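Weekly sync notes, structure subgroup
Attendees: PM, AL, DS (notes)

Item 1: joint prediction request from the bench team. They want all two components modeled as one assembly rather than separately. Inputs as received:
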Amino acid sequence: MHLLHPFTVPVINVLNLLAACLLLLSFAMLSRRRTQRLITLFAWQGGILCLSTSLVAYSSGLHELYYSAALTLLLKVITLPLILRRLIYRLGAEWDSETMVNIPVTMLAGLMLVIFAFGLAQPISMMATTITRNMLGIALAVILLSFLMMITRRKAVTQVIGFLAMENGLFFAATSATYGMPMVIELGIALDVLVGVFILGLFFFQIREQFESLDLRNMENLKEE
Amino acid sequence: MRGITFIRQFGEVILAIAIAPLFAGWIAQCRAWMQSRSAPLVTQPYRMLRKLFSKDAALAETASPLFRITPYVLFGTMVLAAAIIPSLATDLPFARAADAIALIGLFATARVFLSLAAMDIGTGFGSMGARREMMIGFLAEPALLMVLFNASLLYGSTALPSLVDGYRAHPTIIDPSVIFAAVAFVMVLLAENARIPIDNPATHLELTMIHEAMLLEYSARHLALVEWASYLKLFNYACIGFALFVPWGIAIHGSDGGGVLALSIVALLGKLVVAGSALALIETLSAKLRIFRAPEFLAMAFLLAVLGLLVHLLLGVR
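Output from the run, pasted for the record:
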């Protein structure tokens, strides 16, 4: 293997640790009711993603990955949490919390999803050649857990955070399976996410104007009988 | 040689009994500092124990012998647990008698006795506290077992001393499952020792108390023993945590001599100081949960521990 670097073993250990932290944060997000806390956790997730990407870049010697780590830092740790915070401040939704979520049941479902994701990733990761291939299962689990968060939550802002967390999971999957996507695609995705958050921010105001709340249950009344 | 290990064992137990109140006092002091109150002395628990021991005990008319012997049973089980847990050295004659699962059984024995004694008098608060305590206990125990299984999976043993030895043999390995297990363990520790997210140890507010509600009928030397046992329980949990997650400085098998032992005492004290202030920080930052939220909190701990097992199986370093 060309990857046998003098530091390979400690780096893979640290990477495993970071991957575990990512999964832990996903579960923490699943268990939080307050929107503000969710944004903080999302920023942490971005930070861990940035760290792990730069570690992968270091251990594999691929310099593009440094750029994508920097992009992650800029976008997911600094810009997006800032935008989201300003949004909920302007919406007056800082202290919003989801009251109707049954956390233990959600967590149990999350555990099942993790088992499913790990099982699913096992044969796929056999085919990958990267040192981080074992983490594919964790990346899949993060994606599925964010899905679960989007399904179980009713507030618009929380759903958007779930969506962004899912993107984090996809990014992690790309890094761990194939050492990241080409730079052009990554830049494109970053731009998409940024624009997406802006547009969704506009939607928030529209939704609130229409229903005087950010609860998406109201949307169900829109369909014609 | 055997004589030395027995002396060491004896010394460890004496040390545990002696400094457990100090640990509780340190946490109370840190909490007071962090909440900008004027802090009680670190030695406050000793003063309280001395005051209680010098008083005359009053017993309810309806109290059965069970109520009387419970303080001694509690104190005895906690001392035995302190003898099993490798807080200073792993080469302990007692430690081989029971593994971690038996240790959890010991804690369960103490809990059952305390709950029965609380129900014995027949007051409303006593039985309410007992029922709540049993609920917390039955939720916390599986989580604690899972945490221990995490460590067992890593080092192939359920006995705490061999876990420490195993860790010291491969100190470079950082297994990701350890993070999950550590978080879960802290949550269990908070729940089991009547700490803030679940129960407030300083409250006498009738409807929220759990641990205090069970002690309402105790007085004087009985109360002193029960309190001392709960200090010891907290100390024991902290030492289990050190053995599982930060076993630096514990004198391992085969290392003899006064220097090593002195070093391990210093290490233990240092870890206790850090752990005490960390606990105080957690208690200051979090609000007490409603009792109906407690299952949620402990289910989270259980899930984290199970996740640790899964992550170990997926990413296992060895």
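Discussion: The two ends of chain A are 63 Å apart (CA to CA).
Action: AL to compare against the crosslinking data before next sync.
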